[in-house]
UniProtKB/TrEMBL annotation:
<feature type="signal peptide">
    <location>
        <begin position="1"/>
        <end position="19"/>
    </location>
</feature>
<dbReference type="Pfam" id="PF07995">
    <property type="entry name" value="GSDH"/>
</dbReference>
<dbReference type="InterPro" id="IPR011041">
    <property type="entry name" value="Quinoprot_gluc/sorb_DH_b-prop"/>
</dbReference>
<keyword id="KW-0732">Signal</keyword>
<dbReference type="InterPro" id="IPR011042">
    <property type="entry name" value="6-blade_b-propeller_TolB-like"/>
</dbReference>
<feature type="region of interest" description="Disordered">
    <location>
        <begin position="16"/>
        <end position="50"/>
    </location>
</feature>
<dbReference type="InterPro" id="IPR012938">
    <property type="entry name" value="Glc/Sorbosone_DH"/>
</dbReference>
<feature type="compositionally biased region" description="Polar residues">
    <location>
        <begin position="32"/>
        <end position="43"/>
    </location>
</feature>
<protein>
    <submittedName>
        <fullName>PQQ-dependent sugar dehydrogenase</fullName>
    </submittedName>
</protein>
<feature type="domain" description="Glucose/Sorbosone dehydrogenase">
    <location>
        <begin position="63"/>
        <end position="363"/>
    </location>
</feature>
Length: 379
């Protein structure tokens, strides 16, 4: 890790338990192969040390326990409600909200419920929405048909379960899903409060999974016939790729360090043996780390040469400028305390991001208009 990051780490104080910000006890709803670019290419991609964030507008207000956010091709947005188990369409221009329907089988409790959303890579032809949720027995991934021709509130088809058996708990349910540049489905899972699951490659808890759109272990995964892509995670809720198809993931720490990791297939990211940087070469060290009061990271996005990371307990948006799979400068914080807890950030094209707050989830301090979606311009 560059010396500049080591200096930054010393400035960040270790906080109390970073469960989805500040869950009871310890823990909570925290937290493709690398390619090597040429030196010229890397230099061209390296963003400036200091960036900027401008809040362009408030897109929508009055959202209830929003969690997942999936942009539609026409510029509208799909939002999942963790506790209501509904999916709502938000007009990207006017902010008008239209409920598509409720996803059956969701069992909200603690940090569990209806969480991540992702559109099928063939959405233009199949109109399939993928969702990660907590059922009565496990965490699972389903796909549902979105039929815009049906009446509002009844536009979701019956869920087709493509993957199940991910351990569930009152805390640490993971929940982020995303289709990668390879058109395969990635899922961040948590260890459900059972720390031993993270190091067990036979368990689905505390992992990043890589699946086909039908829910089978993806070809080329590092462990034969296994959906496991990386392991040794505590609670992964952020997944994003850079322009060179390199995968990054955010992870909730316990009492000391939250992490941003560059993901290499088959690598062990240390939990519970290591939290943050370790001197043990068995574990893949994070490219950046924060004291848990400063972050408690959920969603991440890549834009303008940087990873942008939404902080729950930290109540700020972090910018981590990149040079390849390393940070090129100290992480930089924006919007500190301005909008409360920040749950999800996704690219909106070019230098724009969508950012969604999380103040109605039982751990925040809701303000008038919460929860909301913001449009940001970043450099």
């Amino acid at each position: 890790m560059p010396a500049v990051l080591a200096a930054a780490a010393l400035l960040l104080t270790a906080g109390c338990s970073s469960g989805d910000g500040d869950s009871p006890g310890k823990g909570g709803d925290q937290a493709p192969s690398r390619t090597t670019a040429s030196p010229t290419r890397q230099a061209a991609e390296t963003p400036p040390a200091q960036g900027t964030v401008k809040v362009v507008r408030t897109v929508a207000e009055g959202l209830s326990t929003p969690w997942g956010l999936a942009p539609l091709p026409d510029g509208d947005l799909l939002v999942s409600s963790r506790d209501d188990a509904t999916i709502t369409r938000v007009d990207g221009e006017t902010g008008k909200k239209t409920e598509l329907g409720e996803v059956p089988g969701v069992s909200p409790a603690g940090e569990g419920g209806l969480m991540g959303l992702a559109l099928s890579p063939d959405y233009a032809s199949d109109h399939m929405i993928y969702a990660y949720f907590t059922s009565a027995s496990d965490n699972r991934i389903v796909r549902v048909l979105y039929d815009e021709q049906r009446s509002a509130g009844d536009q979701l088809g019956a869920p087709d379960t493509i993957f199940k058996g991910i351990p569930k708990g009152y805390i640490h349910n993971g929940g982020r899903i995303a289709f990668g540049p390879d058109r395969l489905l990635y899922a961040g899972t948590g260890e459900s409060g059972d720390t031993g699951l993270s190091q067990d490659k036979e368990s689905l808890g505390g992992k990043i999974l890589r699946l086909t759109p039908e829910g089978e272990p993806a070809p080329g995964n590092p462990f034969p016939d296994s959906p496991v892509y990386s392991y040794g995670h505590r609670n992964v809720q952020g997944l994003a790729w850079d322009a060179n198809q390199r995968l990054f993931a955010s992870e909730f720490g316990q009492d000391t360090w939250d992490e941003l990791n560059a993901i290499k297939p088959g690598d062990n990211y240390g939990w519970p043996k290591a939290e943050g940087k370790s001197d043990d070469s068995t574990y893949h060290n994070p490219l950046a780390q924060w004291g848990t009061d400063e972050a408690s990271p959920s969603g991440i996005a890549h834009a303008e040469g940087s990873v942008w990371m939404a902080g729950l307990k930290g109540q700020r948006l972090w910018r981590i400028p990149l040079n390849g799979t390393e940070a090129s400068a100290d992480p930089q914080a924006f919007l500190e305390g301005d909008y409360g807890r920040l749950r999800t950030v996704v690219p909106a094209g070019g230098d724009k991001l969508w950012l969604m707050t999380s103040n109605t989830d039982g751990r925040g301090d809701p303000r008038d208009g919460d929860d909301r979606i913001l449009e940001l311009q970043v450099t």
